[in-house]
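User: Hey, quick favor. My workstation is busy. Could you predict this chain's structure for me?
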Amino acid sequence: MSEAPRKKVTLNYLRQKKASGDRITSIGVYDAPMAAIADRVGFDLLIVGNAGPMSLFAHRDPTTVKYEEQLFMTQAVSRVTKYGFVVGHMPYMSYHLSKEDTIRNAGRMVSEGGADAVKCEETGIRRSTLPKSFALASPSWATSECRPPEGRSRADLASRDEARKMQ
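Assistant: No problem, here it is.
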């Protein structure tokens, strides 16, 4: 008996797994070889966090990671990922100064970086301001909450339809 062919992980698929109590698997990946392996293994989420640029470019602090460095790593991961849902990290100061910067940088992470979604960490920006800004950047994704629980980053992601409703 053969298995059903794999399909690209979508937000709806992730919601279905959560609703049914199935585990959603994730792994941090920072380069093409690791992303290809993680994708082949079958991880649902491939998260391109700031630990990659910190390690590769010897940053001492995550606040010094440049947007372009994060974008390059997201590009490398997304180019080899066939099935996993790629989540690109928005580095420090890429979404802090204005809604316009947020929209431009998040849009670039999706359009140039190939991310399926972006994540960010709470730094005084409230949930009420992020979704509308992010939804305007690209109707295919939105970040609805960016608050690190107990020192860990997390993003609750919204569907394309929900993003359009937020506009």
